[in-house]
Amino acid sequence: MSSLNKLITGEQQVIEKVDMMPPGESILVALAIDPYTLKFIKSHWQRTQYRAVINWLTKYQSQPNASNLEKVKGLLEAFHHLFEIAAWNQALTILVVKIFNHENDQLHNQLFSWGYYKEISALYTKFLENLDFLNPDYKTIFLYGMGKVYYAQGNLTKAINYYQQALDLARTLPASQQEGAILNCLGVAYQSLGNDTQAIDCYWQDLLLAWKNKNCQGEAAVLNSLGFMFCQQEKFHKAIKYQKESLRILRQSDNLSDQGRVLGSLAQAYGGLEKYDEAIKYHQHHLKIMQDMKDRAGEAEALCNLGITMAKQKETQLNKPLEFEDYSQALQYLEEALEICREIGIGLTEINVLWNLAGIYQKLGQKNLVLKYSQLALNIANKLGIPIKSFKQLRFD
Q1: Which of 30, 82, 131, 342 minimizes the number of CB atoms within 10 Å of its CB?
Q2: Start-to-end Cα distance in the chain
Q3: For 9, phi and psi rounded to 5 degrees?
Q4: What's the Cα-to-Cα distance from 282 to each of 1, 303, 357, 359, rounded to whole Å?
């Protein structure tokens, strides 16, 4: 069995993909596991674990209507059996198997997009806590991944801590592909805490790095982040300029998820200019992409912002006190967003949804619901250490 470092630093076999899951037999080839040679393994414990790996990869079949987690259960179970016998290199191969979808993402990244934060956090932790000799490139990726998980859950302090560890390590590596992405995420986390100075510093470092390395995808990502910051500062025309340049770059590639995020940012800028028809069009396009990508966190964010924009449009259009039916569509989108937030545990978006629900019910004069939703939002914000002033788009006062 080859060492972990040999696997990571060497060329890895490309696994062909059929449907969502690659064929189990091709994964066994990539793992260098031959079912016919198991009998030569002396340890009964090891033979048992390898037999379980083979069975999970070749015999497990999910139901047609199964959840995404059930569909990749065979891979996850194989991972755990390999980890049991300290087959680190083979376990890592499972983690980076490519799943057939819109972007053919690796298993660990796909679990994140689907919103399975508990599961992906457990996988990262297994490596980070048990393998001091993990190759620095992969250690950087896993530290960065842990930061993304904590950010999605709204734990900004822990997210920043992991991003900083990943950044420090990435800067020790030659030609690291992660440094720019980490800087961008670090900037977003600081921005969410209301620390615009540190956020801008991270963004400009990232942009200079993207220009230096001619990294168009990285440039597009940071331009969108800068655009969103300008939007929060109510510099809407400047925001749109940055966001449209970001979208122009991204449309030269097939990266739909990033295009969707930029569309969502553009929608908020147009909403700030009170061009609500334009804003709603971009929000709906953003929502459609996130739903097609099965990006649960992105879907919740798009639903939330669409609901907020629809409420503002009604308030602008109708020259009379609004009633419940005037807000019905906005409330429906916000409630759908809240359901997803609670299902996958995304604290930042949940605070936003709750705070805006409180704002609508305040307009409707329903004091009990105002108190209910605003208190829930404050409880989560206090628990996570997030200042409410960071939510510039919130309408409750």
Answers
A1: 342
A2: 63
A3: -85, -15
A4: 52, 12, 22, 23
Please choose, from the candidates 36, 133, 25, the residue with its C-alpha nearest in 3D space to the C-alpha of residue 89.
133
CA atoms of 295 and 116, how far apart (whole Å): 11
Cβ neighbours for 134, distance < 8 A, ≥ 6 positions apart = 4, 127, 128, 142
**65-72, long-range: CB < 8 A, 24+ apart:** 68/110, 68/114, 68/116, 68/294, 69/111, 69/114, 69/116, 69/119, 71/20, 71/21, 72/20, 72/21, 72/99, 72/107, 72/110, 72/111
d(CA 260, CA 282): 9
The residue length of the chain stands at: 397
Cα 226 to Cα 265: distance, rounded to the nearest angstrom: 10
Contact 339, 353 (CB under 8 A): no
Contact 32, 6 (CB under 8 A): no
Mean pLDDT, rounded, for 165-169: 96
DSSP 273: T
The model's pLDDT over 216-258, given as tens digits with 9 standing for 90+, comes to: 999 999 999 999 999 999 999 999 999 999 999 999 988 898 9
Judge whether 258 and 243 are in contact, CB under 8 Å. no
Residues 274-317: pLDDT tens digits? 999 999 999 999 999 999 999 999 999 999 999 999 999 999 98
- Locus of tokens 């966001």: 243
Q: What H or E segment, with its residue span, contains residue 275?
A: none
Question: For residue 63, what is the enclosing H or E element?
Answer: none
Taking the alpha carbons of 73, 46, 131, 17 in that order, is the dihedral positive or negative? negative
Hey, which of 126-140, 348-362, 375-389 has the most confident mean pLDDT?
348-362
pLDDT in tens, 182-209: 999 999 999 998 899 999 999 999 999 9
Global pTM? 0.87
327 within 8 A of 317, measured Cβ to Cβ: no
Which pLDDT does position 13 carry in this prediction? 34
The residues, any chain, with a CB within 8 Å of residue 373's CB and separated by 6 or more, are 354, 355, 357, 358, 361
**CA gap 166, 178 in Å, rounded:** 9
